[in-house]
Structure to design on (166 residues):
């Protein structure tokens, strides 16, 4: 498994993972019906995010992209010392440490960037596996938005806000 910074050429692979995950599970806020990103839009997101001080990483198995992590730095002056990330891994590649490797790469990268002090995330309270990974790496819960997410079946989940101070 190889982790590297994404280029615009990786847009198709990242988009495939995003669509796959959105259609399969309940851990993303956006639903399949709401997701309208095409390859060109994904390509532009990679470029724009990088230009604005963020980074996108991909995990490769051979030539195949099997995971991604997008870190977006806050553009507001009073919040520019922070950024948040989202992560996605193909189903067959989960529970193999890929997410942990991408997160550790993000942390290392962030330490080399001028002014980044805090990495933030939001995770659904129902995603216990992800919460455990974040806690092992050193992220701490900072708060919860109670019953923030409502599923089709009428059940709710909290949005758990976590952060790691560098």
């Amino acid at each position: 498994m190889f982790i590297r910074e994404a280029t615009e050429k990786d847009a198709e692979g990242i988009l495939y993972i995003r669509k796959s995950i959105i259609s399969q599970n309940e851990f993303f806020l956006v639903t399949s019906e709401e997701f309208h990103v095409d390859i060109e839009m994904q390509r532009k997101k990679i470029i724009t995010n990088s230009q604005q001080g963020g980074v996108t990483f991909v995990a490769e198995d051979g030539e195949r992209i099997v995971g991604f992590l997008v870190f977006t730095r806050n553009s507001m002056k009073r919040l520019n010392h922070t950024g948040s990330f989202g992560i996605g891994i193909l189903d067959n590649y989960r529970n193999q440490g890929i997410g942990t490797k991408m997160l550790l790469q993000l942390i290392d990268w962030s330490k080399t960037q001028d002014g980044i002090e805090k990495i933030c995330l939001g995770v659904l309270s129902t995603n216990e596996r992800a919460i455990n990974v974040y806690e092992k790496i050193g992220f701490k819960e900072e708060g919860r938005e109670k019953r923030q997410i409502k599923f089709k079946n009428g059940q709710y989940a909290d949005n758990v806000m976590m952060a790691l101070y560098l």
